[in-house]
Amino acid sequence: MELRFQVNNAAISGSNTDWKALGRPTPRYDEIVGKNAKKLKDVVKQSYEEAEACLRTNYHGVKLVTRALVPLLELSDSPRIVNLSSILGQLKLIASDEAKELSRVEDLTEERVDAVVKGYLEAVKEDSIANKGWPTIYSAYIVSKAALNAYTRVMANMCPKIYINAVCPGYVKTDLNNHDGVLTVEEGAKGPVRMALMPDGGPSGMFYNQIEVNNAGVLNGVISDSEVGYHNVVGEKEKFKQSYKMAEACLRTNNYGVNLVARELLPLFELSDSPRIVNVSSTMGQLQIIPSPLFQLKLILQHIPNKTAKKELSDVESLTEERVDAVVKDFLEDVKEGLVESKGWPSSYTAYIVSKAALNAYTRVLAKMHPKISTNAVCPGYVKTDLTNTQGILSAAEGAKAAVSLALMPDSGPSGLFYSLMRKLKKSRQEKPVFGDNLTRIMESFSGPWLGIGDFNEIIASSEKVGGRPFASLSAGGLISVINETELIDLGFSSNSFTWNNKKPLIANIKERIDRGLANPAWRLLFPYASIQHCQPTNQPTIQFCSAQLKSIPNTPNPIKFLACWTIDHTSRYIVEHAWRIPVRGSPQFKLCLKLKNVRRAFKVWNPSHFGNVQSNVKLLSKAIDQIQKEVPDHANLAREANLQITLDEELKEESMWMEKLVIVLMRIFFQHPRALIFPSLNLENVILLVISGTDNWMLCAIPSDSEIGQVLNQMGSNKVSRLDGMASVFYKSYWKTIKTDVINIVKSFFTENHLLKEQNHTYCPYPKAREPTAVSHYRLTSLCNINYKLISKILASRLQSVLNKLVSPLQAAFVLNRLISNNNIIVQELWHTMMNKKGKSGLMAIKIDMEKAYDKMEWAFILAVLENFGFDSRWSGWVNNAGVLNGVINEGEVGYDDVREKGKFIRSYKKAEACLRTNYYGVKQVTRELIPLLELSNSPRIVNVSSTMGQLQLIPSKRVKKELGDVGGLTEEKVDAVVKEFLEDVKEGLVESKGWPSSYTAYIVSKAALNAYTRVLAKNYPRISINAVCPGWVKTDLSNNQGNFTAEEGAKPVVRLALMPEIGSSGLFFNRMRESTF
Length: 1079
Fold this sequence. Notes:
four-stranded parallel β-sheet, 1079 residues, 31 helices, Rossmann fold
């Protein structure tokens, strides 16, 4: 007699629940194991007898049955044991130190499980379960299921022939939960039945939740994408620097890491009906070189010249995993001995090329060894990732398409192949031209940085042709396919748009751009700002490569400035109306920005034909005159200067003429409609002193009407300087009928949504008052806010003016309507006269207080608190907060208010410094201290502290502090706390710089330095937990005023990668994104 299936389903709660007091059928999950467990203290009660009965049934009962049936199960060809457990039996829910024994998978025995159960029952008898870390609600049930899960693992080790697993059937309607559940008995039975019928070769000793059972132990597909670089690019003419450590790390990740993952997952793949493995590789890992005389291009070639490696990795028939490993091992030995180039390995991108070549070879080996699994490698294209410094032509989503398409390929698809992008996944409608085919083979033969320039005799877009038949992408040659499939990058061009002309007249004339420069991603990374310049056409079209444009910061075009004189030309109105009607999408604020951009583009084209480039011509002529004046003053130069000066005078006269015409037009409008420019004064009769009433708040918070917005606009001066976006108020007034709806929508959206785009409140502070300005006070703070922003701020200011009388002291004369500062001057003179003429023993003293720009020294937190105390509505405070914070731009460099200095020193306070340390350092310590007991129950715990490169010790001048925090061997938590405490005392006493602390961003730097040191301390104290610190980069957050190089998602990547680092990973280190760095 034999037995094939055994399903153990024995469970009692072990507690007595007062259902009437509970008031519902069952308690919630958070009331059993969460923070609300105390609420059930008087509802769910447990005695020693009930706890002992629960363990006897749920744990010991299963053991007795299993022990009796194992001999019969071993007679079966595919025996199964399924233990019905619960998610409440997970060890993370038990804080007891004794329960940690159950997580020791390797040396776990039945006796140890029994000892844990016995220890729990003794704690119940002594009424000390809470003190010893055992659960307090349904504790016997939780411990019994945790013991059952552990016993499942023990049995799986003892009986390897039997597949033994535990499963939680879900929240099933039974007597145990008073028939309150989400699954019927039949639905709850599906998981255990599927586990019992699982095919041979599946896992054993595992715990499954109901939702995991549908595909338990079966894996349909995996995409292996592991990449690290290995070198530092140091210059155009210098060699690529690499070290053995970087090369070894590159191979360990790109090659061995993929092998390890595939080896572990192969048993699960073989259980699937249509398994897939896709290895993300690169065209740089290809072995073949296909020379061709098709092009005489000057290319920088890189490949694998090593003939032995080529032969080993390209021998498909006899290729084995051992041979691939041997090639990799030889390469690493040559790197260690400094024999890379002499042994025929690539001189640049060496480890990366070898790792991808090895991965391609291993793909073929896997395909041979496991014919049932479709295994292929694919190059996703030149994708914007950290590896390419976010340079590339494809987004991450676009790069993923090739890998996903391979993973979803039909079962009849090939295996053991390498795909470059999507070339072999898409069936071409027609045969690829010979030109494109040959060019593809040439480009794929090379690796490393290269550039090709010449006549490719083909266009790739409709914008590259004028005249003749229209361009059709379907009829194009092979160049488009080559660029897409081989990751080529078109460098673009400047100057003339076309490089070829058929020289025919009128409609027969055809112009095309057939000359171009194509580079691969490696070359583009070396020269990110290089471009092609088309020279003036001669008898033969030519192009010229501008190598001089290799600068670190690209030029940014200046926005076109709206000239008030344009408004007197009636055609300008049609230009605005046409540009304004172009459809755009987005929020009202974003739509307005796009429409203004369209108007600027239209005016840029319209201006030369109607007014001429007066300003541009003036600049060019002035520059030419300056150049001539620097040369030798001979007869020819003097004559040229005289002619240019005459032309310049004519241009200046034309500019002056247009301005005079504008003044005439404006004066005519003024005298024809005088009342249109006169507005009634504000009505202050109903202002109630001392208190902001409900009526006041209703007035302040009302959504502005169309007429109010138009009135505020008309109050602005017309002949003001153009704003940052190039548009002055005269533009808005002149074309109000066209743009009225969008402008009103953006203003109203601010008052309804309390949100303002950052593009709306940019401003300039461009005028220094000193020769070498070092502080904001050295600048003349001229605000050039956009008109859209000014409309909002003026509406807020005009409304505030109506209640200002009750907010400002009667003794204050400035800024308040109907009060004159001269009145105070008269009073002071009377007081001074009295003091000077007073006689007697007692005298009078006058104190002059200089309140220089006191309103510019206020903190926002203080201003908002004052508004709240005055009784302003929270909506009004929010509007002031959002509309009042500007991004300051000084000499084209943006600074936040954290950077504002007073008399050369950064403004700091003890309160801010203490808050910074309390959050950035002490807060992390407190959270870590609370969570470490739970982390220690895990098999692979991780702690990742998000720090900053500003916390590196080199930024702290104090040698003593550097020594304290840099002493890794003797560093303790007490020493770190002492440094932090000393810093706060120095801040309180005003001794920051004299004691060697940083002069700017002081508290932030110290907090992050302390966090980095605490990371090392933790790593020493808890060697089983992988603990590291990481700087996510300059991320766009509130802390950086939403300025930065990375989005929140991109900034989270290095943090997540560290958290998912393999168990062999290091601990106690600091990473700058994914690169290990110094503390």
